Amino acid sequence: MSQPAPSLTTTEAVPLGSPSLSDAVPVDAASWRRRVDASARLPVLAYVLSGVVWLLVGTVFALLASFKLHEADWLGETAALTFGRVRPAHLATMIYGWLSMVDVGIMIWLWGRLLKTEVRHPWVLLASCALWNVGMVVGTVGLLAGFSTGVEWVEMPVAAFFCIVPALGLVAFALLSSLGRRRVRHLYISVWYLGACMLWTPILLVAVLLPIYSGVPHATVNWWFAHNILGLWLTPVGLAAAYYFIPKVVGRPVYSYHLSYLGFWTLALFYNWAGVHHLVGGPPPQWLVTVSIVFSVMMIIPVLVVAVNHHMTAFARIRRVLYSPTLRFVVFGAMSYTVVSLQGALMPFRSLMEVTHFTHHTIAHSHLGVYAFATMVAFGSVYYLLPRVTGWEWASRRLIALHFWTTGLGIGMYVVGLTVGGIQQGLLMNDASVPFLDVVIATKPWLWSRSIAGVLITVGHLTFAWLVWQIVRHRGPAPDGPVYFRPPPTGLFGRGDGGRAPVADSSLL
């Protein structure tokens, strides 16, 4: 039985950016934060550590797939390591393993903090994590053994999703059951995003896995799902985290709370119609493709709304990115969200698709969203929450900086190289006088840039995994305060304990 709510007499200033900051919290704010963090500790650690393991597994598959694009015979004698198996294994382990599982860990922690209540049913959450990992093992081994559905983004054997979908349902049950016991009257915008994606995602997965499609309807549903698993699952978690951490670290409310409402509802209304524009020139009815194009362009509205909110909140105190690891990663991700979404609103036009369709440009675009936005925000979130649930600090600011620069420069090099190479590839393929083999040869330097970028990113992933392992084991110097890239000026981040032992100049109030 949960304990009764303590008396509520004071208010918390950040990150709430609502019209009225009247939601009360216990007098000893640090005390309730510690209770919330303690209740979330085991499930958060389980999901974050699982996500990091799958991040490393997915990185290995990514390097194999990338090098095979310009060294086609490399490891080609082993069936399990051929491109047709390694590439789907990479996508599955990164989307459903790394990013989905670390996002659930972030959701659990944010949910308790934003509702100001202990996380309920921690053992249900631990069971869901175990079930999810079983599904990932079944799916990854199945792909390497050749048992693929052949449907992009859901290539794992259906048996894997028989584990993942119920696991997600258990997460939704555990978190949504705490709504009635929350200690706040107002629901911050991050709760809206997190609650909605917990309802949307199981529906998406069940809909795409129904054995009722074939031919053109199957292709249509496939791309409807592929776009929406990014827009209605990974994007809401990333935006929820950005809406929490940017105001929290910079120490000021969200620029406009009314804009955050507009951003949420327009995302919910418009994004669901996108995706079929990937079949421009294909067999679906042209009216359906046109509707998808129209709503893709209308996504400019929520994108600009979120961009104004995030950037106006951060830019007033933007120099804090020089010091705070969390803010640097999250701001990088928020800026990438703006770029990838504006790019996505323009890409569906038929005149542009004539050049970029079926080229490496599409791969660059997807990585700009999944990695530069969603993954970088996830990194920043983990740098904030793990010290709170472990009661320890990060072992090395230099290694955190190494992680940022290798992943930031790596994904930048990846996106620029494949964008330029993809446009060149599309222009050459549209020229009937150019033999296809010449097109392949022309793209090879850009594929090398992709692999070099992948090596850089791999260095960052190994560094991140080592840092996570060290903080979980309480290794490194005893914490005497938050870890910054450089010592901040006194008072830059205020004072507070962030739910841990008292520290000086904490940006993590």
**In the CATH hierarchy, what is the class of the largest domain?**
Mainly Alpha
Number of helical regions: 14
Roughly how many Å apart are the termini? 29 Å
Shape: globular
How would you explain this protein's 3D organization?
This protein is an all-alpha fold and 509 residues long. It folds into two domains: 25-185, Four Helix Bundle (Hemerythrin (Met), subunit A); 250-486, Cytochrome c oxidase-like, subunit I domain (Cytochrome C Oxidase, Chain A, Up-down Bundle). The chain is built from 14 helices and two strands, in the order E-E-H-H-H-H-H-H-H-H-H-H-H-H-H-H. It has helices spanning 29-70, 83-115, 122-144, 158-176, 189-209, 215-250, 257-270, 286-298, 300-315, 325-346, 350-356, 360-390, 397-429, 436-472, and strands at 8-11, 24-26. It has a two-stranded antiparallel sheet. Helix 2 packs antiparallel against helix 3, helix 6 runs parallel beside helix 9 (300-315) and helix 9 (300-315) runs antiparallel to helix 10 (325-346). The protein is globular and about 75 Å long. The two termini are 29 Å apart.
